[in-house]
Each structure stands twice: as C-alpha cells, then as structure tokens.
Amino acid sequence: MHQAKTLITHIVLATTFITAHFPYTSASPVRRDIAIPPVPADPPQPADGDGIGPYDSQDAGIGDRLDKAKFYAVAVAAGELNLVNAERGMRHYLGNSGDDLNVSPEAMMNGLPKFRESVKVLAQNEAAAAYKTIAGATGEKAFSSRWGNFYATKDMSWDWYFAIGGYSYSVTGVVTKTSGGTGSLKYRVHVFDRYNWDSGKSVDIGPFHFEDTELGNLHLKGLAKEYTVRGSSGVNTVEEFTPTTSLPPPSTGGRG
Predict the structure, then answer these.
(1) What is the pLDDT of residues 110-157, one digit of tens each?
(2) Could you give the CA distance from residue 199 to residue 175 in angstroms, rounded to a whole number?
(3) Which residue from 97, 103, 167, 185 has the least number of CB within 10 angstroms?
(4) 243 within 8 A of 128, measured Cβ to Cβ
(5) From CA 172, how far away is CA 158, in angstroms rounded?
(6) Cα–Cα distance between 135 and 212 in angstroms, integer?
C-alpha cells in the first residue's frame, strides 16, 4: 500500500510540473473541405410503367429458347461491327442476372460530343448558381442537379443508340469562393437508365431485323432480365472559377 501511495504522489507531482511549464493551448480547428455529394436518387418511373411487364410471368417454350440463341448471335454481330457497348448491354440482358450494369460517362461523352456539351452547360449553370449563394467573402457550397434527359440517336452514334438510347444524367459538385474574388470547382457526372425492350419499335443490327417485343418477351418468359444502367465519372476540376467562367469540356478520360 505504501508503494502505491508513493507512485500516486510522483504522478501528481509530475503532472503539476508539466502543467506549470507547458500550459495547454487548444489547436485551431482543422478545416475540412465539403465533399462532392453522391449520385442523386433514381429518377421516378413513368406513370404508365417502364418495361415490358413482370419478369418470368409466362411459360417459356422451345421457340423462346431458340429466340434467345438468336439474340446471342445478334450480340456477336454487334461486336463484329464494333458496337462494343451494344454487345455488352445485350449480353448482360441475356445473362439473366438483372444486376446493375456500370457504364463510363467519360466513354459516353467521348462517343457523344453533343452529350458532352449538354453536361458542360448543366455543370456551368449549377456551379454558377451555387457560387452566388455563398454570402461571405469566402466559403464553399455543394450542389446536386436534377436529372436531365438525353437521347443518343443513330446519327450521333450507332453504338450508344443500340446500347442505351435515351437516358438520364446529372452533375454533383462543390464550388469554393476565395478572398481574391475567384474560386474553384469540382464535379462529377452521373448517368442512369433502365434497360428494357418496349413494344412498338424495331432494330436492325447487321443482317438481323427484330421487333423490340421479341427481346422483351424473353424477360416475360424468365430467359433474360431487365436491369439498371448506372455510371459516375471521375472528378472534373476547374482551378479558377467564377459565375462568368466558361467551363472547359468535361473529361473523357484522356480520349479527347
């Protein structure tokens, strides 16, 4: 017991000495940059539904299985025509997992220059609006746009027309305002689509001609499955930004 009391006395004396000679001062709080917001919530489905109908709701016959084999041949033909994204999307559908398929917004903007320009305009408007809400001489503001719509036509890209057609896109980012009157911008590009085959359309790929309902029926028969397409880009950075800045085109991943 005596040794314990002696040890406690020494600790108290040491603590008193340290406090007297090295007074505690609180450090300045570390400044933490605002993070770029995540991808927005999925766009709502159309009021009249989206897709051909309930999965695996009808019995499949031998003719349906032959149709599936035919569409694997369609996917091969797409690949031979260098429609690589169309082939990938078709194979994923026929793979029957229903899992999400990730796509690269950079690759899409590379193949769809008009889409790239639309993204640039959206980012410009959203960033300028966010910057103007910063009341002080300095500060940061995060932004998240609504989903916009874009349609990849055959004239723009045969590959992306067959791979995805119409889809939704948005941008999320952060603007920073500095005391010098300028600032910076960081943002990401997001894309979203529900891959399905609605009725009333037809497609020609190589020597193959088929109605969308033929592919859609494979979903109804449980032989293929509709799925969701998603993708988020890397961070686009603009070192000097003000509401009047003309943004450079978003990155296409080093491919132009």
Answers:
(1) 999 999 999 999 999 999 999 999 988 899 999 999 999 999 999 999
(2) 44
(3) 97
(4) yes
(5) 29
(6) 53
Contact 189, 177 (CB under 8 A): no
CB 119 within 8 A of CB 231: no
| Distance of alpha carbon 25 from alpha carbon 126, whole angstroms | 42
Backbone φ, ψ for residue 162 (5° rounding): -75, -30
What pTM was computed for the model? Answer: 0.84
30-84 pLDDT tens trace? 456 789 999 999 999 876 667 888 999 999 999 999 999 999 999 999 999 999 9
Write down the H helix ranges in 81-211.
84-94, 105-111, 113-132, 158-163
Residue 29 dihedral angles phi and psi, to the nearest 5°? -60, 140
Instruction: Pull the structure tokens for residue 181.
Output: 């009157």
C-alpha span between 105 and 107 (Å, rounded): 5
